[in-house]
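SEVERITY: medium
COMPONENT: batch folding queue
REPORTER: lab tech (J.R.)

DESCRIPTION
The queue accepted two submissions in a row. Attaching both inputs and their returned structure tokens so the on-call engineer can compare them side by side.

ATTACHMENT 1
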Amino acid sequence: MRAALFQMTSGIDPAANAAAIVEMIARAKGEGADMLFTPEMAGYLDRDRVRAAATLRCQAEDGVLAAVCEAAAREGLWVHIGSLPLKDERTDGRWANRSFLIDDTGAIRATYDKIHLFDVDLATGESWRESSVYGPGEQVVAADTPWGRMGFSICYDMRFPDLYRALTNAGATILLAPAAFTVPTGQAHWHVLLRARAIEAGCFLIATAQVGHHADGRTTYGHSLVVDPWGDVLLDMGETAGLALVDLDLSRIEAVRGRVPAIANRRPIPAQVTLA
């Protein structure tokens, strides 16, 4: 499988972000890619909630999604949109952070809403409440593709290995972890967490990231990664936006799982802990 990763610096103009993705779909196809992967918040990245509320649309009306589906069909290329922020049909009014798997006819094959939301009160007085804006996903999602079963996650999900255990128990062999990681947490945890998830699962892991200084004032870490089932980093895109391609030898999955059969050796863990 030849994977193309588009490391983006998404901004607050959905039309510009859509045009950039459409351009990369054509480039990726021209370079022999089988599938293009984008980061979390590929279509719109904005921490100004008032401005975002006036810009976001529901899935059926989202212009970025429509443009990507059209381009995927035109070029005959599979596309994974890491995520789009969308107004949702939730009764509480919160939005969705949603991934899309689009096939080479432009059809949406699967969607996944981010399960784990980042809520924290810091000693500095800063408070982040992702759950005040986004509703959590409630389903673990894996989907079949010509290159194997892909398991979905988004950004903060990577800190919760139980999700990946569920995905590999369901037969996933390629894990997707698009992200918009901050620089301090990226420097501390990005590589080690993603390599650990790939090693635990005996899977390929594709983590396409946002990078650089964004129009809303934030800075993201970049370093889009492709990790093989042994934990070797096949691609690290560093801190520059753009397109990169990497070939995945899918026979590595069976070879690594044969050497370290951790999935086959799994046992149910009792919920109750014995205190000695």
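ATTACHMENT 2
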Amino acid sequence: MGILIIVAVAAVIASQVMTTTAPITGMDGRRLPGSITSVEKVELNGTEQWIMIRGNDVSNPVLLNLGMGGPGGGGFFNATEFRPLEEHFTVVSWDEPGTGKSYGAVPFNELNRERYVADAVALTNLLRERFGQQKIFVYGVSWSSILGIWLARENPELYHAFVSSGQMVNTTENDRMGYELALRHLDEQGDTRRAEELRRNGPPPYHGNNVVSPYVAFLDVLNEIMGTPRFSLIVPVIPFFVPEYGYVDKINHTRGLIETFNVVYPQLEGLNFKEQAQELQVPVYFFVGRQDVNAMASLVEEYFNSLTAPGKKLIWLEGGHGLGSAENQNVFIDEMITQVRPLSRR
């Protein structure tokens, strides 16, 4: 038994120490000259955080992926969505503080808007210096689309453009609309048990030590409406599809998503970009699912129509939250290559 324990501990340690990301290879199967593939620990404002860098050519413009959502989702999981772009961008995916490989980077009670913006700006400047570029591109989805708007609003000189999918606009209005839609759906389906649970929870916003549970209760229903798996089913499974995670990272990803959400999401209660970010000084590209009822498509369209920016484009996708299907992925990739990347030459 003692030997088995030693072997198990050694396997866990090895999985953490030896994490890497697959090389980019040419037709001959060898590493492509000039390419970069790395998983790195970087110092951001006195803390150690983790990034993944992948690209065919380090002279390409840099695209910073802020992460998959949450708050607390991190960028290592959705990094696979950018694989087709690695020929055209140097893609940097960030595990933000509080999740995945950066789980313990910052005490949870210090996670707030100022912290996220400061760390994202520090990472941006690190990448600008490392790759010799005056500006970079930045992408966010769902929660990280909020961070992206903050960055574009407060530091426009650092970015060629801001790109998002599942754009959040007004969290409180968005969540109340989602709650009411979920409740109507359950009533129509005759699902009295879950409908009563939602009624007991009451409408959002929620407060207290465990806001995850009441939010997930209606978000699970919204996912069903959009034809996607429930959050309560996919969240524990997500990190096991990230090859760059060791065993501890996989556990910390789920822990971090829950703990970070509990701390950070209530801080977004007053968010309303129609009032707080009416004008941005960078081009903006919103990819919006027509059936998105997580980040309500109607609110994104209203915000887009009222937004002033040096360039803006709303690209409609079929389906729900995020990029989703292969067809939507193709639309995203084509737009990024043909419309977004050329902005780096201005």
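NOTES FROM REPORTER
Residues 95 and 192 are 39 Å apart (CA to CA).
No errors were logged for either attachment.
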